[in-house]
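pinging the channel bc i need a second pair of eyes. not urgent but kinda urgent?? the chain im working w is below, pasted from the shared doc
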Amino acid sequence: MTDAVASVESSTVVLPLPQALRVGSMTIAAREYATVRLTTESGLVGKAYCLTRNAPVAEAVDRLFTPLVAGEDSSDIAGLRAQCLRANVMIARTGLAVRALGLVDVALWDVAAQRDGVPLHRLLGREATPPETMMIAAYPSEGRSSEALAADVAAYAAKGYRLLKIARSGDVELMRHWLDELAVVLPGSARIVVDGACAWCDAGEALHETAEWGGATLAWLEDPLVPEDVAGLSRLRREGRYPLGAGDDLSERLTVELLLDAGALNVLRIDTVAIGGVTPALELLERAAAAGVTVSFHVFPELNVHLAAVTPGAIVETFDPTVPGGNPYDPAHLLSSGRLAVTDGVALPPTAPGIGFDLLEST
C-alpha cells in the first residue's frame, strides 16, 4: 500500500541578527532559511530546513522538484530522488538545486521514520551512540576584547562542552591574544576549532597569517580555503601547524572524493542538506570511514544528531539555543521545536519518531 505525497510547501524565513557578523569575506546582517513541509495522504508531515545563503532555495523546490514528487509514493525515496535528478539533469548536479533537493530528501526520510514509528537513527539500522557535541561558542565582533571573547568560550567549557568552535578574526593581534587567553582559562580537556570561513585566497596566505597566531594548539583549523582547492588544502596539511577540516556547504560529492583521495583532511565537514540530503550523506559517511577521516556535521543539529549517532567518532555541532531572544550568530532554533539534548558535552539520540522536530507555525 502506497502513501502518496499530497503536498510540498516551501517558504523562506529571514531572521535579522542583533549585530552584523564579519565572517571571512562575508558580512552577515541576517540569517535566511528555506523550509519544507511534505505532507502525505495518510497525514504524515516531513520537515526540513536549511540556510539559503541568500539564494532562492524555496523557489527551486517549487519549480524543480514539487511537480515531480506530488502524487508519487513517499516511501520510494531512492526512486523519487532518481526521478528528480534525471528530470533536472542539466541543473541538479551541483549548487543551489542540490540544496533544494536535499530539503525534499530529508523530508522524505522524516516521513519514512515516522511511518515506522521510530527515530531516524533507528530506521538507519545501526547502533546509536551519543556523539560528541561541538558548541559554536564565539564570533569576534566590534568592541569586544580578547578577554571577553575568551570568557564566552570558557562559560561553555564550564557547562561540559569539550569541543568549542570560534570564528577567525582578521585582526591578527586580537586572534593571537584570544588564543593565548583561551590556553590559560580553558580546562585541559577542552579543544578549540577555529573557523576560517574560506577567508584566505590561497595556502600561502593562510600559512603566513596562522603563523602569527602564536603557539596555540587546535583540534583543527576549519575551512581555511574553499573546499574545491584540493591542492591548497593538501599543502596546508603538509606545511601548516594545525589539523584541517573542510567541506561546509559542499554540494559536489566528487570534491569530497578528491579531498579524501588526496589525504587533504583530518576532518570532513558534511552539510547534510547542501550535499543533497540523507541519502548522499550516508554514502559519504561510508567513504570517510574507509579513509579513516573523522566527520563533523555542519549545524542543523536536530537532523544531524541522527547521522552522527550511527557514525563512530562523528561530531554534531550546535549554536546555543538558550540565548534570550535567539542566538546572535545563528538563530535557526527559532524555526523549530527541536532541541538537542546534551549531557557532559555529548548529544543524546532522540527517541521521538522521525527526525523529532516540528517547524513553528510562523515559518
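so The first strand starts at residue 5 and ends at 23. and The CA atoms of residues 12 and 267 lie 31 Å apart. — does that match what u expected or am i reading it wrong
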